[in-house]
Amino acid sequence: MKKNLTTLAVILAIMGAAFAQTPQKTVFFTGKTLYATLRFNDHGVNSTGVPGADVTFITSQGDTLRAVSNETGRFTIPEVPTGKATVILEAAGYKRSTVEIDIEDNPRHRVHKHFEMEKAGDERDL
């Protein structure tokens, strides 16, 4: 029994030394959650949600986050970093839309944005 305890103590001492020499990384991600509404705006006549739209969120560092809008045109992207970003919106029957946004660094963890899309082939006479 004494031999087992001595062996265990030696193993624990070696493990302790190994962990003491291995730098530990602690990563804290302070991203925000983007809550957004995607709407079709018929120039003030109608405003309805755009369901099933593919949303691509590209950070200034080049990371890509994705979401799909629900039946009311809403989508959520968790853990978006602060700073400038590009949002690409694509849906069947609508023109592809690219929007530059800025996620501000503030104490709130929620960011609310509203985006609009135009129907494909919806050209207005001037």
Task: Give a description of the structure.
The protein is elongated, with a radius of gyration of 25 Å. Strand 1 and strand 2 form a beta hairpin. The strands form 2 sheets. Strands 1, 2, 5 and 8 form a 4-stranded mixed beta sheet that branches. The chain contains 1 helix and 8 strands, in the order αββββββββ. By secondary structure, the protein is of the alpha+beta class. Residues 15-30 have low confidence and may be disordered. The protein starts with a helix and ends in a 9-residue tail after the last strand. It has one helix at residues 2-21, and strands at residues 32-41, 47-49, 54-59, 64-68, 74-80, 83-90, 97-103, 110-117.
The major sheet is characterized as: 4 strands, mixed
Task: Kindly state the number of beta strands.
Answer: 8
Overall, the morphology is elongated
Q: Separation of termini?
A: 94 Å
Count of helices? 1
Helix proportion: 10-25%
Q: What radius of gyration results from the CA coordinates?
A: 25 Å
Pattern of helices and strands: HEEEEEEEE
Low-confidence stretches: 15-30
Keywords:
alpha+beta, 16% helix, four-stranded mixed beta sheet, 126 residues
